[in-house]
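User: Predict the complex.
Assistant: Input components as received:
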Amino acid sequence: MKKQKQILDSEGVRRTLIRIAHEILERNKGTQDLVLIGIRTGGAHLASRLQSEIRAIEKTEVPLGIVDITLYRDDLSERGPQAKIRETEIPFDITDKKVVLVDDVLYTGRTIRAAMDALVDFGRPQSVQLAVLADRGHRELPIKADYVGKNIPTSPSENVEVCLKEDGRSNDELLIISLEEKG
Amino acid sequence: MNEAWIRKDLLGLRGLSKEEIELLLQTAKSFQEISLRPVKKVPALRGKTVANLFFEPSTRTRISFELAEKRLSADTINMVGSTSSMVKGESLKDTARNIESLKVDIVVMRHSSSGAPHRLAPILKASVINAGDGINEHPTQALLDMFTVMEKKGKIKGLKISFIGDILHSRVARSNIWGLTKLGAQVTVCGPKTLLPPQIEKLGVSATTDLNEAVRDADVLNLLRIQLERQSESFFPSIREYAISYQINRDILKRAKPDVLIMHPGPVNRGIEITSDVVDGPYSVILDQVTHGLAVRMAVLYLLSGGPREGEE
């Protein structure tokens, strides 16, 4: 049996993203040199939404990229058959840019480590910042988010899921899913 | 979602399912972008070792594999037939076992005997990639040919694809036939009667000795070299006579579709199976094939380097 608890509904997700967009603009004093790079798959959708929110606020288009971190994983090939690779699309030079990495859930930090390794193969950014919709704790690496939608204290037996319309869900929502303890 | 890759080896396209071929082609698509980055390298195969055993001459395929391995951060060792202990009389099995003692993870092998990699694969823990065995198969070449067709035409299903030249000795044609028919292409093979394998139609292709028939309505013409080293010369009166009947030149292309693709696995013999102006002309995607080969081989190496296959996790 799985138990679900809703943390944010569709409106909650929308308001949270608007707040993060404002925070990004405040911290970077506008959109000068700013670029957004979403981590496949959830982070890519959120980055695209942040781009829209920033466009609504500042009337400028911030460059948007997508990074697939599979080839940079530290547990590659210990996981049975290789994971499916999707394309990385960063159609601009990131050198001297302020890169905001976007992901849905921050957990161990290993995904972010892999994403930063991938980024430096594309150039030398002026800075890299991290925006996540949910931070569920349990870090295994010294990594911290600059923009957090929601801090959610969880136990390892719980799972945090971001459901988005882009993935074919009927509504946006942020959920905690508790898995029944196995005996 | 496609199923995951679970095979240890890539010996040919004959035994693969349509879904497995599609997974290989999709994975190659994602690897294409890496060669356009400022740093053309990913750490996916860091710590893995790949042995390239080329018991038969090869330039393109060997260099392509080697570069693919390096771009995935694998360590590589190379052995070429003429400089190896094979010439001192060591058997293929012993050579391979010795190489395995060095804890090699993947063996890429080209051999003049059909079936050589199929013999090695079951006795090695390492994955085996067939880089061409005799006149049997050359799976990565066929995959890069199919990838090129996908890139240029957007599909394979329903396309008419003709292979022209020495079909009998062509492992490229054989692998392509297995792959293309599984993906729903209509394949025609064309060449002098002596260079068409008997009963080739049983593989689901049409065969003709008439070049016009192979060219007319074709979406893709894949030209095969006359393999002088395999003595195909004795199968027809003279190279000149072959060229008169089967050369792809400007005149014959007037009868082709206006958007026909000209492919060739290389090396090209200009003036024999194809004229120079056609090699360099607008229909030719011969150099694109070389570029795509790199992405395809990276995809194959990546998928074969996966972890335990016996269902853990």
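Chain A touches chain B at residues 68, 70-72, 76-82, 84-89, 117-118, 120-123 (CB under 8 Å).
Let me know if you want any component modeled separately.
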